Amino acid sequence: MIRIYKYFKAVFLVAGIILLILGLVIGANFKYNTSEVTFTPFEISAGKTASYGNYADYNQTGVVIRGTILQPQEPIYSNGLRPAVFFFHGMFARKEFHYHYAIELARAGFVVIMPDHGGMGDSVGTFKLGWDIIPLVETVIDHLPVLNTTYNLKINKTQVGSTGHSYGGISTTFAGIYRPYNESEGIGVSACASIWTWSNLTETMEYMIGDYGTAAWDLLYLTNMEHVLGDQYVDNILSSIEARNAIDKVNGTKGNFLPPNWLLITSWDDGLVLPEWQMEIMAEACFDESNPSISSNTYYNYIKSNMTYANNFTWNNSGSFENGSMRKIFLPRGTYGFPQGHLTEGFLVPPLVMILDWFGDAFNWNVSDTITRIESDIYDLGATIPFWPAPVQNLIFEMYLGPILIINGLVLMILPLISYIARGRRRDDEYQLAQFRFPKGTTFSWKETLAFTGIFAGVYLISFAPSIYLSSFIKYVIPYIVADALLATGIFRSIIGGVLLIPLLWVLFDRYGQNYKDIGLDLNKKKLIRGAMVGILVPLIFFGLWDFLNVFTVFPTMLPMPSPTMGYWGFVLVLVFVFITAMIEEIYLRGLIQTKLEAKIQESNRLDNRRLKKWIAYFIMVLLSLGVNTLGISSAIFFAVGPNALYGNIFGLNFGALFFIIGLSFYLIPSILNPYIYQRTRSVWACAIFNMIMLGFLFTCRLGLGITTF
Fold first, then answer.
1. Alpha-carbon span 216 to 324, nearest angstrom
2. Cα torsion through 702, 328, 137, 200, rounded to 10
3. What does the alpha-carbon distance between residue 576 and residue 536 come to, in Å, rounded to a whole number?
4. Strand-pair partners of 55
5. 562: Cβ–Cβ under 8 A, 6 or more apart, which residues?
């Protein structure tokens, strides 16, 4: 039993200053290792109107594309020439996101051309979605001869590739379809590697290729499973067959696809477990002629032992790649630290190694030394933690940790100021909670708080399996997308977790019920359970929110343990949040009982006269929640994208609106269901601001570390 310290506000202020200083130091010291590579800026004026098959005309004029050319300080030539690769970045990003990939490609001898999309990074123009990107992609590729001559790059025009992540993956696909290498013009790309582009790419390719013409290129399509359970796997695998048929239909070339051996993971220790019947369905649905001899070892070990992919698969009778072949490799999310957040997919080592090997094979270029060096830099962080090279790990943490520490440092510094604003002339003992001070003599039990945290963590981890089975069964009566959404957003887990925790409510009643009666509150078991359910379900909903933020990233609902990509540190951070919440709940309840700060029945009438003031306070708090979270989100996007990214900040506002809804539920539901605790305006201030700070802190940390959905 300990006494609560008196300097609560000072702690927040000092913590904020420390975070601010750390963020400034980390941000100021971030840099890439560029000792072996030269960087040359370039600029292209784009003005092109084009028509694409059955698609409408698109006009992208007045756009200035700026970018960087990377090449090794000591160029490597073959017959006096060298291969080149265009690298397109993702949406709401900029070329710097993928400098580490480009640096490794350049160190392997490639000339890497990295443009910023219009309206992003250093480029000028209006960012547009969809087909409007095609003229820009064509413009950049068409300017290759000019760049080659201007900067004396000595590029082999027959060995030009394209790669990119997310929106850059879409750009890469467009480059392969609309600018394949044309021998008479000496312009175009002959090999492509698309990293995590959109989920319906294969269908779109079928239309585009059918309408426009042949695709004379090799495509390495690194993708993921967009759905989670049952027949959804089959849908995705069938889509690979559709893509193969699309290629076959145009030029008669047979595309081979990796069979889903990576799904044959057979124990909890190995991560994801799938029922045998799902395995059989997928095996029947897959085209598996590429290598039927692959054993059923785990995907991770398989990847580790077959890092040079092109040399281990036979794509035609001669054992080499040929124009028109397509290779689609599914990389499952959330297993073996593979990747994961859509943003971090553009950071990780396995795609980098695959890209190097792909272009090395396509252009007959030796990349083995580079791959060996990358593998030698890899170190083991644990059995299920991804193997990351130190430069990539530093990149992820240092690029975003600085700005996010700055943001949250400022937020924590603002907290004491809000406390002073909330201070009124009312009796000090009546509003101590609002001033972030607890009643004199208030104590709490470490043992009980730790026990609550442990039970909560256990329920969270245990509830994942029932939520998956619930989703599987409910798909028989509701649409798949609805069931997946309920699973992904954590609603199933919240419901099951709440049911599992119901026995604890009876314990709570036995512990606090008599005390409530002693201070004049007529609370029966039903009322107490109703209030306690709120106290338990709100944190579970918070975890549901965490799951929601992982829908396109880790999908922790699929894992028996916290996902490596969420980060074990991230799960610990969440448990710290739960512990603090449990501690404050413990303090609050004890203070409520010991000092009788709860509103007595005779005081409720007086509070009714202040209802308008109370709702004004609610409104202000909601605006604060919206503002702080929007600040964190839009600022992180701003740091990532650059000053041209107005759209990115609007995107941040949309997420702020999401937190508006979530924040409203945090503040209003407890006050409605348990008004005896949440009835004082200033107490509401305290509780709401605390929730707002914790949500903003956790979300912006998560965003800043690059583990987000966009």
1. 5
2. -70
3. 16
4. 52
5. 461, 556, 568, 570, 571
In whole angstroms, what is the distance from residue 311 CA to residue 126 CA? 42
Mind giving me the DSSP string for 147-192?
HHHHTT--EEEEEEEEEEETHHHHHHHHHHHHSB-BTTTTBSBSEE
Reported as a pLDDT band with limits 50, 70 and 90, residue 356 is confident
Q: What percent of the chain lies above the pLDDT cut of 70?
A: 23
Residues 143-190: pLDDT tens digits? 899 999 999 999 999 999 999 887 888 788 778 777 878 888 888 888
* Contact indicator for 335, 271 with CB cutoff of 8 Å: yes
Q: Distance (Å, rounded) from C-alpha 548 to C-alpha 546? A: 5
CA distance 573 to 136: 43
At 439, which amino acid appears?
Answer: P
pLDDT more than 90, % of the chain:
7
Dihedrals φ, ψ of 581, to 5°?
A: -60, -45
Which helix (H) or strand (E) element contains residue 678?
none
Please state whether the predicted TM-score (pTM) of the whole model is above 0.70.
no
Among 699, 709, 678, 705, smallest CA distance to 625 is for 699
Cα separation of 696 and 627, whole Å? 10
Q: Which fold has domain 37-333?
A: Rossmann fold (3.40.50)
Helix axes 568-595, 446-462, angle to 10 degrees: 130
Nearest CA to 60 among 140, 122, 167?
140
The residue ranges of every structural domain in the chain are 37-333
Rounded CA-CA distance 464/462 in Å is 6
Concatenated DSSP letters of 51-71:
EETTEEEEEEEEEEEEEEEEE
DSSP conformational letter for 81 = B
Helix, strand or coil, per DSSP, at residue 3: strand
Q: Is 188 left (phi over 0), alpha (psi -120 to 50) or beta?
A: left
